[in-house]
Design brief:
By secondary structure, the chain is α/β, with parallel strands linked by helices. It has one domain (2-140): D-tyrosyl-tRNA(Tyr) deacylase (D-tyrosyl-trna(Tyr) Deacylase, Chain: A). It has helices at residues 39-51, 96-111, and strands at residues 2-15, 18-23, 26-32, 69-74, 116-118, 125-140. Helix 1 crosses helix 2 (96-111).
Length: 141
């Protein structure tokens, strides 16, 4: 499981020109699930996302400390294998049926602690981000 966290001043997701969700101060999180991921990894990733101190002048505050929000975007391309050649290999990505369940569980897990909004699994999404910093962190569990 891999996630790309971006500290944002604003982020939104649209599908076919229609706004689906948006947040102000918080984290835009692109998440990719891999074959072999399990519930334990999911809970560990959720805890890590919530706990990461990416805010404040000294990176001493997490998303809860600033009363921020999360916009969680499913992204099957994140687990791509890129070591050979110039075309990404997606054989590591979790199959869509299973990944959809993991995504829904991740939204639920995060939302139980911090306000979390979501994209639409499987849709072609337009994601707009106003980075704050920019601060971008890659997490892997």
């Amino acid at each position: 499981m891999k996630a790309v966290l971006q500290r944002v001043k604003h982020s939104s997701v649209s599908v076919e020109g229609k706004l689906v969700n948006e947040i102000n101060t918080g984290l835009n999180v692109l998440i990719g699930f891999e074959k072999g991921d399990n519930e334990e990894k999911l809970k560990k990733m959720a805890k890590k996302i919530i706990s990461m101190r990416l805010f404040g002048e000294r990176f001493d505050k997490n998303i809860q400390d600033i009363n921020g929000e999360i916009l969680l975007i499913p992204n099957f391309t994140i687990p791509a294998i890129t070591k050979k050649g110039t075309r990404p290999n997606f054989q590591n990505s979790m199959p869509p049926n299973e990944a959809r369940k993991f995504y829904d569980k991740m939204v639920e897990e995060l939302n139980s602690v911090i306000k979390t909004k979501s994209g639409i699994f499987g849709a072609m999404m337009d994601v707009e981000i106003i980075n704050d910093g920019p601060v971008t962190i890659i997490l892997e569990v």
